[in-house]
From TrEMBL:
Pfam families: Nitroreductase
Protein's UniProt name: Putative NAD(P)H nitroreductase
EC numbers on record: 1.-.-.-
Residues annotated for FMN binding in this entry: 10-12, 35, 39, 134-136
Cofactor(s) of this protein: FMN
Length: 186
């Protein structure tokens, strides 16, 4: 697949099956992520990879978050939280590891850089014929989850990228007219 086709046709896949990406595929994926633009070379990226028992542990963390939010939450709610990470054989949490008070590189730039890293993961996965889906959801912003993942006060969970084999067909890529979004000052 040539680069422009990849950029024009990348698409999310919510239906994911095993196996998880191979170590070689993951190496290629992370190398793509690490090409994110990075002002002052702060490397504001941290990736936490979940597979196997790790997905179960992440689900437990989500359930704990639900329980802390509402100690009266029923089993159905807690079970639903537990099952969320099991929708893929692998999840990569993309975390903006923010260095505070850097001259000319405010937090927002570092978070954007981590967002670009997440996009790099999606693009690389698509190029490799894998399926991927960027999810956040309320757990990305939850105090219990942040603590469980070891985030510093200034850090942010930017994405939970679900990864695996394609479990269905890609939906057709939405056709946008670029002119709708572009203003030109000539
Ligand atoms: C920051 C961010 C968070 C997202 N979180 C979710 C999410 O929690 N659940 C979801 O279904 N889609 C989420 N999405 C959207 C999907 O990843 C995807 O982009 C969307 O379904 C459109 O599909 P496409 O990427 O094939 O165009 C999120 C996207 C971004 C950029």
């Amino acid at each position: 697949m040539d680069a422009m086709t990849l950029l024009h046709e990348r698409s999310s896949m919510g239906k994911l099956t095993g196996p998880a990406p191979t170590p070689e595929q993951l190496d290629a994926i992370y190398r793509a992520a690490l090409r994110a633009p990075d002002h002052k070379e702060l490397r504001p990226w941290r990736f936490v990879e979940f597979s196997g028992e790790g997905l179960t542990r992440l689900g437990e963390l989500f359930a704990e978050a639900e329980y802390r939010e509402d100690p009266h939450a029923g089993d159905a709610v807690l079970d639903a939280a537990r099952k969320k990470p099991l929708r893929a054989p692998m999840i990569i949490a993309v975390i903006a590891k923010v260095t505070p008070d850097v001259a000319k590189v405010p937090k927002i730039e570092q978070v954007i850089s981590a967002g670009c890293a997440a996009h790099g993961i999606l693009l690389a996965a698509h190029a490799l014929g894998l399926g991927a889906m960027w999810r956040s959801g309320k757990y990305a912003f939850d105090t219990t989850v942040r603590k469980g993942l070891g985030l510093g006060d200034d850090d942010e969970v930017v994405a939970f990228v679900y990864l695996g084999q394609l479990g269905g067909r890609h939906k057709p890529v939405a056709a946008h007219d670029a002119r709708t979004f572009v203003e030109r000052w000539n």
